[in-house]
Each structure stands twice: as C-alpha cells, then as structure tokens.
Specification:
heterotrimer; A alpha+beta; B alpha+beta; C mainly alpha; A: alpha+beta; four-stranded antiparallel beta sheet; three-stranded antiparallel beta sheet; 16 helices; about 15% strand; B: alpha+beta; two-stranded antiparallel sheet; about 20% helix
C-alpha cells in the first residue's frame, strides 16, 4: 500500500485487446499524469512459427505462410520469398512474369498504404475517411479476385511464374481503376491534410532523426520521411524496376505528418509504375517450364541466399539455406515492421498519450509480420 | 542516380480547409451505398474465384501427390472400396475444410485432373466437422449437407 | 392558449390549483416522453446519417428501414447483466449515470418550444430565471462524468474523467460569457432577460447575425459539452478504451450513451433557441415548433458532420485553445455587444 502512495507514476497497459493498438501489440506504459515516461512494447501474441514451418514443407508450399505474414500486403511478401527461392533454385522467371509481378506488388502497395491511412485516421479519431479508403481498397481486392482467384491471401505467384496469366479484360479493368483512383486519392488526402486539427496532431510530433533511424534499422517510408532516400527498388533493383521511371519521395520534416505525406506520394508513384508496366507488358509464357506444376515438389536447392525487396513497410529480406533436399534447411525473415517497431520506445519519450497513439499509428504495424 | 522528390507539406488556410473537409464528407450523403446485402444479393466473384475442392473418383489414380504438396495436412488419403482399375491401392484424398487455405496446389499438381476447385464457397456445415470424405467431395454442396 | 391551460381546463373539475398542479405534472411527463423519443430518434438518425455519409446503408433489418433498431438495442441493454467492477465506490458508481440522464431530461423542460397550430404554446415552464436553471443543469452533467470515472476503480476511467474535467473548465467560462452577451442584448430590448422565452421574443434579428463571435464560441462549447469528436478526448476510444464509461455495462451504459446523443440534441435546441431565433419563423408564427425543429435539425446535421470529419483534439491543445482563444473572443464579443446596444442597432 505504501508503495502505491509514494510512486508517482502510473503503470498502464495498452493491448493486446485495446481498440487503439494495431493487431495484438501490447504496450506497457509508464505515465506521469498524461505524459508517457516509458513505453515497453510486448510482442509475440501472434507468433505462428512461420519460419520453422517453412522448413517442414516444400519450397513451393512456403508461399502460403509468407502470404500470412504481412496479410495487408501479401503480394510483396510472396515476391520477397520468391526473389530468394528462385535465386537458390536457379529458376529465372520469364520476362512477362516479372512485369506481372511488378504490377501486382504495386497494386498491393497501394492497398496496404490505403489501409494504413484509414487505420491512422481511426487512431486520431477520424471515423469517415476509413470507409473511403476501404472502398478504394475493395476495388483493388476485387481486381485481385479477378486475377488470382482470392482476395487477400492470394498465393498468386509461384516459383518461376504466376498462377494464371493476365488477359485483356484484366488489363482493361486495371486501367479503368487507375484512371479513377488518383482523383479519389486526392479527395481523401485533402480530407486529412487540410484539416487543422489533423495538422496540429501530426506536425512536429514523433521526430525521428535520420542517424537514429539508421542505427535502429528503420527502413521504408519511415526512413524516407526522415530524409534518407533509401529504396531497395532503386538502390538494388530487382525484377524490372530499373526499366521503370519513378521517383522516391522523401521529406526533411521527419515527423508523423511527413510519414503520412510520403506514403500518399508513394501511392501516386505506384500508380505511375503500374501504368508504365501495363504499357510495356511483353508477351510470352507465364511460367518457367523448369518449374512446371508437376515438378513443383521436386525442386532442390543447395547453398544459401539472401534477397531483399521493398515491401510496403520497408526492406523485406529473406534468407534461405538449402541442403540439397526438396525442403529448405532454414528460412529467416528480416521483417521491416519489427525493426520499425523497435524505434517506438525512443520516439515516445515524454510525449502525451495521444501523441504516442499517433506515433505508433504512423509506424504501420502488421502483426502477422512482426511476430511471424 | 536515384530520382528523389522531396514532398512538400500542403499549404492550408485555417478553418477553411476543415470546412472543405466537412463538405466533402457531407457530399457523400448523396452517393449510392456500396454495401452488398449478402444473402439477398450475391456479387459476381469473377471467373477465377475458387474455393470448394471437388474430386472425381473415376479419374483419381491414388498417386498421393496432392497429399504431399498440401502445405498443412488438409488432404489425407483414405481407403475407399470402389472399383477403379486405375487406382489399384484404392486410396482417395479426403479434405478437412477447416484447415484448407485454398492454395490450389493440389489442383495444379494432380496428373489426371481428378481434383479440381469450383467457386462454391458456402460450405457452412451443421455438424462441427469440416471433414469431407472422397464420396462427399464428389457430390455438390447441397447434397452433402447433413 | 397554451397546452398547459388546455390540460388544466380538462381537469378543471378538481378545482383551480389542483388542476394546474396536475396539468404541470402531465405536461412534464409529456416533455420527458418527448425527450426520450427524440433522443432515441437522434440515435437512429445518427446511425443512418453516419452510414450514408460513409457509403453504407445503416440499420435496415429491424422494422421498415430499421426504425425499430434503437428499440431493439435498448431492450438488449436492459436485458444485459450489469457487470460492476470490484473496488468501486458503490453509491456514486450507480448515481453517476442517473445524474447525466436526469439533468438531460430536465433540460428539455426549460426549452421554449413555441406554438404548434391549435395546441397553443407547448412551452412547459415559464420561470423568470429559466436561462439560469438551464445552464445550471448543463453544469451538473460533468459531475456525473467525473464521478463515473473516479469511482469505477479503473486507470483508463480516471484519466478519461480528468481529461473531461480539464475540458469542461476550459470551455464553460467562455460559454457563460457568450450567454451573458445574449442577456445584455435581451435586457436592452426590455424583455425579462433571464427568461429564455423573453430571449426568443427579443430576436427580431437572430442573435447569430448580430453576434457571430458569440455564436462561434457557443457552437464550440456545445460540441465540447456533448463531447463528440473532435472534443471526445474524455472517452477517446483509441487511447483510453472508452474513458469514464469503461467499466459500465447494461442499462447504465445505455444512459451514458443516450446522454451523449441527448446532449447533442439539447445543445442544438439551445443553440437554435438562443442564436437562431428559436420558434420565430419568417411566416405566421403559429407553427413555431416546426421552425424550431427545422433549425435544430440543421444544427444537428452540422454537428454530426463535424463529428464525422474531424480528428480528436489533443487535451492540452484544447485547454490552450479554450483559455487563449475562446476566452478573449468571448470578451471581445461582450464589448461588441455593448457597442451594439449603445448604438441602438438592436
């Protein structure tokens, strides 16, 4: 009883069943009144042992577990795994497949950022934009159903190819979507950034210095909003990103608002990328005959491979060790959301609870990926 | 050289921007709702949408490839007493839909196209079991329901 | 001829005073029923409006267009078990929702509703100090909020009610100052200024046109009083679960919920009474009640649009805003009002 009286700090628990936290994040807060003195993220509530399960299955089967890591941007996860697995198995996808993968990954990047924007709005108490962005995302998911056969966990890409080919109807539908999308995006964007209260909630909040960001291993839009133009798509181009003309948006403001604007600019760049990819889409087969479907479970790989891609949250790295059998010996994932989360305690020193919520919302956490 | 573009913070006029936002929200009052009233109206799912696994026991040769490729033990082979000259071992796949992730690997690997998926997705069952035996996999969904 | 006298005439066989006393009670009951129905309608209207603005359909299963949804929800809340936290302070815990609900319902009694066709004036009370009583009732409601938060033995609730108190203190002084300007205005016209009825009669020109600053201050204060977004920092669901109502369930939670929507409606009612001319309309005034309802509905739609399109204000920013901007603005408003009265414009 005595300790309760002398202790001026309040211990408060946010999550894992708290309306503000994304997924199942649990935050142990030490509060001095309204001020947050210390934040301790507790993770592991969605740990599904994905890395280990991948070792128990064939190379082609690991895809469904990667789908379920970052379930909001599942295509980027599949892409990250395949970049590594195809290098290990010595299977080069045909040219058409590379372009198709770029289109799918960028469509999913838009969908993922839209979900983030909506959830961020809810964090700050904006109820309505959530539905507008989800309406746009729904159109993308309908496109996915048209292309891949399922909405979110698509399992669309396979080793050396894709599940099914694009046809004229699909290309027409994507173009139709892209022609309307930028207008809707601007509408939602203005709904956010023209609002005085939104600006006051985000401007100069959660300033992340570039040196700190680098030392914590922060990547993706978080890092770019701190002023460092690091993008794997540009720095180490995979697929056909070197043939596509796009810019990397950065901001020198380093705050939550900068992260918001950078993500919206990235969506606009993604639209540009998809339009170029649709124009340049070459003809050809949509899978490598070496990885024909009946040979799916006989692919053997030896050695170790690390491949990195730019997922929606940041640099997504996959490390695979093969021992010459049909199953990988070890699969390791460098998950960007996990690394980005590690900077939350640094950012949330001596801020108000409301700001802490805004900061943790700006990180873009998907817990399937953090816990794996 | 990386093509870098520095984004700028939008210039806003105080209060006017917020009122614009309020007007944008109010404008949506006159738009058609996008909700789909599910049981009454069913949306077109597209040509490639797949969910329910079907099996043609006449074509199945009992090669167990689908069981091997299945990532999470959804498919298990069970023996079934049925005259099929191509299936000497008399084993056929059975599916537990409780764990099926619709990865469609079984459909792709099947050498005789005995296993195939269709766009039937209303597989709610009255029993607390999603386990489909090979004969049930052959039937349509409304015939299976017990 | 007012509704009161009509009821009293029907009851005249009881004698003069008993009939009037009974008529008062009956009319008060009618207003309370009106208040409850209006609050339930408000919940329905909010859900439907929010749904349509968000491109959804909203309640449409229970009854035609889902009109019975609110009733179904209410029945559900009544049936639910009231889960109470351990270590609560029992009496304040149970009294807190009642304070809010009763203060809200009593607030409806003091509004001048104006005449409606052959029924005559619907106004219940004709107190000389009804304005003071009304704002006293509005000032009681934060007590319920504060009690509910502090006694429910929950950290979220304590933080929420502390925020609520900080918010209430920072907007109520400017609110009362802007009301003071109205009283000045009304007294200059020779009506009894503390009677809301007098204030309404004084509005040949709506006070919102003469005192735009006061209107602005009062609009913000009413939004903050009802504590919807952007001023819902007391129950901000993304930070403090639901703030002071975290530990409430069942009917007690329902009272808080109805209190929220009732306060929006009551605030809009007061706003249209004090600033938009109340039951005065451009045409013949025997439909004054309809005018009042139309004005209130417009204010309600504006409030709900604000709710749905704004993020939450940070509590310290709101306190700063209240003391550094709202208070000076309301003082300036007072001075301007003084000049208006001296200039004899009114």
């Amino acid at each position: 009883m005595e300790s309760n009286l002398t202790n001026r700090y309040i211990e408060l628990n946010m999550g894992p069943q708290h309306p503000s936290t994304h997924g199942v994040l649990r935050l142990k807060l030490t509060l001095d009144g309204e001020t947050v003195k210390k934040v301790e993220p507790v993770i592991g509530y969605l740990h599904r042992n994905a890395e280990k399960i991948c070792e128990l299955d064939f190379y082609c089967d690991a895809l469904i577990y990667f789908d379920r890591m970052d379930y909001v941007g599942a295509m980027n996860m599949e892409l990250g795994y395949l970049e590594a697995a195809e290098k290990l198995l010595n299977i080069e996808p045909p040219e058409r497949v590379k372009w198709i993968r770029v289109i799918m990954a960028e469509l999913n990047r838009i969908a993922s950022h839209l979900v983030w924007a909506g959830a961020f709005g809810l964090d700050l108490g904006m109820l309505t934009p959530f539905f507008y962005v989800f309406e746009e995302r729904e159109k993308i998911l309908n496109l996915f159903t048209e292309i891949t056969g399922s909405r979110q966990e698509t399992n669309y890409m396979s080793i050396g190819g894709v599940y099914q080919d694009f046809n004229d109807k699909i290309i027409f539908k994507i173009k139709e979507f892209l022609s309307e999308f930028p207008k809707k995006l601007d509408e939602v964007y203005n709904l956010f950034v023209k609002n005085d209260i939104f600006i006051s909630r985000t401007k100069n909040i959660g300033i992340l210095e570039p040196e700190v960001a680098l030392s914590y291993g922060v990547t993706g839009p978080m890092l770019r909003a701190s002023g460092i133009p690091y993008d794997v798509r540009k720095d180490e181009p995979y697929l056909v990103y070197d043939k596509i003309n796009f810019t990397v948006p950065i901001s020198k403001k380093k705050d939550v608002l900068a992260r918001f604007i950078v993500r919206f600019e990235e969506m606009r760049q993604s639209v540009k990328i998809i339009q170029q990819a649709l124009d340049k889409l070459p003809d050809g087969p949509f899978f490598n005959p070496k990885a024909k479907k009946s040979l799916m479970i006989r692919l053997r790989g030896e050695g170790d491979v690390y491949a990195r891609t730019e997922s929606t949250k940041g640099e997504f790295g996959v490390y695979i060790v093969g021992d010459g059998s049909v199953k990988p010996y070890r699969v390791h994932v460098r998950s960007p959301a996990f690394k980005n989360l590690s900077v939350l305690p640094y950012l949330s020193r001596d801020v108000l609870i409301a700001d802490m919520v805004a900061i943790s919302g700006s990180i873009d956490l998907v817990f399937g990926e953090v816990d794996r | 050289m990386i093509d870098v573009k520095e984004v700028e913070e939008p210039k806003t006029i105080p209060i006017i921007g917020s009122i614009e936002g309020m007007y944008t929200v109010f404008k949506h009052l006159f738009q058609k709702p996008v909700t789909v009233q599910y049981p009454e109206h069913k949306e077109d799912q597209g040509d490639r949408f797949r969910f329910r696994i079907y099996l043609s026991t006449d074509d199945c040769v009992g090669c167990t490839l689908c069981e091997q490729v299945c990532p999470n033990l959804t498919i298990t082979m069970v023996s079934l007493d049925k005259e099929n000259p191509r299936n000497k071992r008399k084993i056929y796949p059975s599916v537990n839909f409780g764990t099926c992730t619709v990865c469609r690997n079984c459909e792709e690997i099947c050498p005789t196209d005995a296993i195939y998926l269709k766009d039937v997705f209303e597989t709610a069952r009255t029993k607390n079991s999603f386990f489909y035996s090979p004969t049930e996999l052959e039937k349509n969904e409304d015939e299976v329901r017990r | 001829m007012s509704l009161l006298t009509r009821i009293a005439m029907i009851l005249s066989f009881l004698g003069h005073y008993p009939s009037y006393i009974l008529a008062y009670i009956i009319e008060t009951l009618i207003v309370i029923i009106f208040g409850t129905v209006v609050v339930a309608g408000m919940v329905y209207f909010f859900r439907k409006y929010m749904a349509r603005v968000q491109m959804r359909i909203g309640p449409n299963r229970v009854g035609k267009f889902g009109v019975l949804q609110v009733m179904a929800d209410g029945l559900k809340l009544i049936q639910k078990e009231s889960i109470m936290p351990q270590g609560r302070d029992d009496l304040p815990y149970k009294v807190a929702p009642l304070i809010i609900f009763i203060a809200l319902m009593m607030g409806f009694i003091f509004i001048p509703y104006g005449p409606l066709a052959w029924l005559g004036t619907l106004t219940v009370t004709h107190s000389d100090v009804s304005l003071v009583i009304l704002f006293a009732l509005i000032a009681i409601m934060p007590i319920g909020e504060l009690l509910s938060g502090i006694v429910s033995n929950n950290k979220y609730a304590v933080l929420g009610s502390l925020r609520g108190v900080a918010k209430d203190i920072s907007f109520e002084v400017p609110m009362m100052l802007s009301v003071l300007a109205i009283v000045m205005m009304a007294s200059a016209r020779g009506v009894s200024p503390l009677d809301i009825n007098g204030v309404v009669q004084a509005q040949n020109i709506p006070f919102a046109i003469l005192e735009p600053l006061g209107f602005f201050v009062f609009l913000i204060s009413m939004a903050a009083r009802a504590s919807y977004s952007p001023f819902d920092m007391g129950e901000s669901d993304s930070e403090l679960v639901t703030g002071n109502t975290t530990e409430y369930s069942g009917l007690r939670f329902g009272m808080f919920y109805l209190g929220l929507f009732g306060t929006i409606f009551l605030g809009s009612l007061i706003l249209s009474t004090l600033y938009l001319g109340g039951y005065n309309g451009p045409f013949e005034s025997y439909l004054g009640f309809i005018w009042l309802l139309i004005k209130t509905l417009v204010v309600v739609v504006i409030s709900l649009t604000i709710w749905l399109s704004m993020p939450r204000v940070r509590i310290d920013k709101f306190v700063t805003f209240g003391w550094k901007y709202l208070l000076p603005i309301s003082f300036i408003n007072l001075v301007i009002t003084g000049f208006i009265i001296l200039g004899g414009i009114s």
